[in-house]
Write a structure and sequence with these properties.
The structure is a single chain. This protein is of the alpha+beta class. The chain contains 17 helices and 17 strands. It has helices at about 1-25, 80-95, 115-130, 140-145, 185-200, 220-230, 280-285, 300-310, 315-320, 335-350, 350-355, 375-380, 385-390, 395-400, 420-430, 440-455, 470-475; strands at about 30-35, 35-40, 50-55, 55, 65, 105-110, 135-140, 155-160, 165-170, 170-175, 180, 200-205, 210, 265-270, 275-280, 325, 395. The chain has a six-stranded mixed beta sheet with strand order 3-2-1-6-7-17, sandwiched between helices. Strands 8, 9, 10, 11 and 16 form a five-stranded mixed beta sheet that branches. It has a four-stranded antiparallel beta sheet with strand order 13-12-15-14. Strand 6, helix 3 and strand 7 form a beta-alpha-beta unit. Helix 5 packs across helix 6 (about 220-230), helix 8 packs across helix 10 (about 335-350) and helix 15 (about 420-430) packs antiparallel against helix 16. The longest helix is centred in the N-terminal third of the chain and has 23 residues, at about 1-25. The chain is globular, with a radius of gyration of 26 Å. The termini are far apart.
Length: about 475
């Protein structure tokens, strides 16, 4: 009888070990929560399973609420944000991914400048409400660079609300060089709405009227659909090609104010019922032109990129210029990359940039996935290697301390992690990374990135310039 008891106890222990091993083998969940859309999927995959709007329908009020809502004062009322995130993650786990959150580690691809209340509330929801084992917070800019297998580059993230530019040297973000522009997908939609209000024509087959004369309100969904379907980035418009914007110069007919030079063709967009919106070709082109205009501080996207390069250490400028990576949904507009390359060369060859950069050459990396999923792919790679276990924040640690370490010192024990230790963990993970055959080029680049990571030394993130080892600077300096 004693032997049977011992045998049953051994069987129960082995069953418990097998259950724990099966839980550990569960594929982690990768989340890239953007301002407009959220990408969700599983680690080891090349693309997210679902791309959904970052909004949720509240059950008690039946209203659609955006997670990043400027009208809601979540800085003071974090409970409202907590409730919104609970409903939002319920939609992700139980309607999209169809998995149990208790068995899955989580990798959250976030912006470097995400607010602390939002990060803490998000961790509370995942740890306390959904009981996830651990969370790894991964910077989006670094994630985009890792997906290409390079350690040094300039990340240009064209998002919905803004465009941020950040250089990364040997895997270390150079925070002092960061710049941001308040132009993105939202700015393109607002500009399109203004142009259509002044120059759009609504027809029902018999009569035609200006959109401003009709009681038709273009919603954000309609504007976003028009931008995605018909808008594009063309050549730089001259002054005489631009549409008049003054109230007394509005169109009186469909072609009275059109420029004399050849323009793109007009398109028809169906509205409610039998109404059709005629979008002039010059409106299709000029709506996205706002991304390259100068703001009140005389800054544009090309000048901001060049200013970031000038702020970089002298011996790293050539490497940064040779590794430009453009990510974000707004960068998927047709003609965006060609216009950006052309204006970068024109601006760099004139003024103060010609004297400082000395005949620069720019090279852009083509991402393996669409630009809006490049950051998510980096999170998928991190979730497939051992760095996930070493760099994650465990549930027990969070419930004991109620503190969320910053990503620069993220360690389950709460101690500060040096750059050398963080680089060693990335090296050990990338060496075991198994990529599909379609991305063999990324594997070769990852091996070169491992060699660069191994030469990085210990440094403080508060002074990223000093973190570049002398030996590495010699390798990246121009001949």
């Amino acid at each position: 009888s004693v032997y049977k008891v011992r045998r049953s106890a051994n069987a129960m222990s082995k069953a418990a070990e097998s259950v724990s091993l099966s839980r550990d083998k569960k594929i982690p969940v990768i989340l890239d929560i953007g301002t407009a859309y959220t990408k969700c999927g599983f680690a080891g995959e090349s693309s997210p399973r679902h791309i959904i709007p970052t909004e949720v329908r509240r059950y008690h009020s039946n209203k659609i609420v955006r997670v990043f809502d400027d009208d809601s004062n979540w800085q003071r009322d974090t409970q409202e944000l907590y409730d919104v995130l609970v409903d939002f993650f319920r939609q992700i786990y139980f309607r999209r991914l169809l998995v149990n959150p208790r068995d899955r580690r989580v990798v959250v691809v976030e912006s470097l400048f995400s607010s602390s209340p939002f990060r803490h509330t998000l961790a509370r929801v995942l740890f306390q409400h959904y009981n996830v084992p651990s969370i790894m917070f991964l910077p989006s800019h670094l994630s985009a660079l890792v997906s290409l297998g390079i350690a040094t580059g300039l990340i240009i993230d064209c998002g919905y609300e803004e465009t941020s530019i950040l250089p990364i040297v040997e895997g270390v973000p150079v925070m002092k060089c960061w710049q941001s522009l308040s132009c993105g997908g939202r700015a393109v939609q607002l500009e399109l709405k203004r142009l259509l209000t002044e120059h759009g024509i609504v027809t029902d087959g018999e009569t035609s009227k200006l959109l401003c004369a009709c009681k038709i309100c273009l919603s954000d969904d309609i504007l976003e659909d028009i931008v995605a379907r018909v808008c594009f980035v063309g050549k730089k418009l001259m002054f005489e090609q631009q549409l008049p914007v003054a109230d007394d110069l509005r169109l009186k007919a469909s072609t009275s104010a059109m420029p004399s030079t050849p323009t793109p063709p007009s398109v028809s967009y169906p509205l409610d019922g039998s109404l059709i919106l005629i979008i002039p070709g010059i409106v299709r082109e000029q709506a996205a032109d706002i991304l390259f205009r100068h703001d009140n501080e005389a800054k544009s996207l090309p000048t901001a990129i060049l200013n970031v390069i000038l702020k970089c250490p002298l011996d790293t400028r050539r490497s940064v210029m040779q590794n430009l990576v453009v990510v974000g949904g707004t960068a998927m507009l047709p003609g965006f990359h060609d216009r950006l390359k052309r204006e970068l060369m024109d601006v760099a060859a004139s003024g103060k940039y010609a004297e400082s950069l000395h005949a620069p050459s720019f090279k852009f990396h083509a991402t393996h996935v669409p630009a809006n999923c490049a950051c998510w792919l980096g999170g998928s790679i991190h979730g497939s290697v051992d760095v996930l276990t070493e760099r994650s924040v465990s549930r027990d640690h969070f419930l004991q301390t109620n503190q969320l370490p910053d990503w620069t010192s993220c360690d389950p024990s709460g101690r500060t992690v040096s750059t050398a230790e963080r680089s060693a963990s990335v090296i050990s993970g990338l060496r075991k990374l198994s990529l599909p055959s379609s991305t063999q080029k990324t594997r070769r680049r990852s091996s070169s990135m491992i060699a660069l990571y191994s030469k990085s030394g210990e440094s403080a993130i508060s002074n990223p310039v000093s973190s570049i080892p002398e030996t590495t600077v010699k390798q990246t300096s121009p001949n």
